[in-house]
Design brief:
5-stranded antiparallel sheet, 9 strands
């Protein structure tokens, strides 16, 4: 129901947060992106996307995730969602990854 392009600045971290209703699909159009996903067992998974190696990644509703750009260039991420954004619907909830160091990850990557 919704498609948009998300620009992620160098070393920027977006999230972590959950979407209560929507499943999101991510495809890297330019640069490199890492998506950190925390599964239902509280295990973290780093999924790397590279525009030169096409891959589509989905994050189901209710699953926390953070998006980061580990490079020194702006990256472009195509996002497809099965539920469109609506003002004031409280569909997204910011959370924290207290036991996972996103800052270290974004600064140690190339």
């Amino acid at each position: 129901e919704m498609i948009y392009v998300n620009l992620i600045n160098p070393r920027e971290i977006k999230g972590p947060h959950i979407h209560k209703k929507r499943t999101s699909y991510f495809y890297c159009l330019e640069g490199k992106i890492t998506i950190v996903i925390r599964d239902t067992d509280q295990t973290y998974h780093n999924v790397e996307l590279d525009a030169k190696k096409p891959k589509l990644v989905s994050v189901s509703n209710g699953i926390p995730a953070a998006i980061l750009n580990p490079t020194s260039e702006i990256s472009k991420l195509l996002v497809l969602a099965d539920v469109a954004w609506k003002p004031n619907d409280n569909e997204m909830e910011n959370i924290s990854f207290d036991n996972y160091d996103l800052i270290k990850l974004v600064n140690s990557s190339n």
